[in-house]
Amino acid sequence: MKIFIYIVTLFLIPTCAQLMAQDTIPTTDPNFPYFIVDKGDTIYVSSIKDIYIMPDQQFETKRDLRRYKKLIRNVKIVYPYAKLARKKYEEVVVEFAKLKTEREKKEYMKTVEEDLKKEFEGDLKKLTISQGRILIKLVDREIGLSTYDLVKEYRGNFSAFFWQTLAKLFGNNLKSTFDAEGEDKLINDIILLIDDGQL
Known about the structure:
Layout: H1 2-20, E1 34-38, E2 41-45, H2 62-98, H3 102-125, H4 129-143, H5 147-155, H6 157-169, H7 185-195
Antiparallel strand pairs: 1-2
């Protein structure tokens, strides 16, 4: 133990002596630890990643366990699309602000729609009804607007009504919103674990 303390001290003394000569060590990496000097005291500063600890899920039956595993699988399938939707939405908002006339906006939205169809239509058609419902909710979670409101904002009332009617025929609702503390808490917990690399 004494040898360990001696070795650590040998490494720390030169570092501390160097740090005393400057107020901070600049770094471009926000997660990189550094020292600051405040009123003669040297303070070690480091950011750590959030870690989510969820209680173990308790299942009364094997069927409930299967449902939970299926929910995890479905969320993993559609969550990347929801993140892409947020990214695309942010791009559209920036581009929309640059456009002056309604004609320019309509042409731009038509181009965006065609590009999205080419890139994702095949994959999205393969989604099950359950996955579609989760995706609609996750779009609201990521963007802060329901899918219905997005269509209404960028394609107009008629398009929103048309797509909502079509969605209803397949048992979906474009007006669905995400309730992280209520009915969608389990989905939200799964997403937090996915983001944290635990799932």
